[in-house]
Structure to design on (151 residues):
């Protein structure tokens, strides 16, 4: 049975896996991929999925345990729980089937706060630009196929 951490240590990190192409963006000024503010935009249920360093540490696991947790993951970033709370998120340990370390950050931070979160996050697994580009190309090809009339 999973022991849910009721009161989180706010100095520990919340880990966010980045999915391409939605949560990363090409930056022509720097000629590289970067984290998009969309990475910190809540889903339709008002939350973003995270993993919790505190829960992983409890089991003696490294920060990269379980990475990549989702398809199209191209990087892993982090903020302290305190930082997410300061920017309007309520952070909780919410284990799910297959991931005892899962948490949720619930809230609706402004676009400006999401931009700051994206630009100031700590990199745990560097963005894989080649994979990000591949996923973007796949998405563009699918969209083009939808627009092409059948003959």
């Amino acid at each position: 049975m999973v022991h849910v951490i009721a009161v989180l240590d706010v100095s520990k990190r919340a880990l966010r896996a980045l999915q391409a192409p939605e949560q990363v963006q090409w930056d022509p000024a720097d000629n590289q991929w970067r984290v998009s503010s969309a990475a910190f935009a809540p889903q339709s249920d008002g939350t973003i999925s995270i993993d919790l360093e505190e829960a992983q540490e409890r089991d003696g696991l490294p920060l990269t345990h379980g990475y990549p947790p989702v398809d199209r993951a191209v990087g892993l970033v982090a903020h302290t729980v305190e930082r997410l709370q300061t920017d309007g998120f309520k952070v909780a340990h919410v284990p799910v089937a297959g991931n005892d370390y899962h948490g949720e950050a619930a809230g609706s931070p402004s676009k400006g706060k999401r931009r700051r979160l994206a630009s100031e996050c700590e990199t745990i697994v560097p963005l894989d630009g080649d994979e990000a580009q591949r996923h973007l190309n796949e998405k563009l090809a699918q969209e083009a196929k939808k627009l092409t009339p059948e003959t």
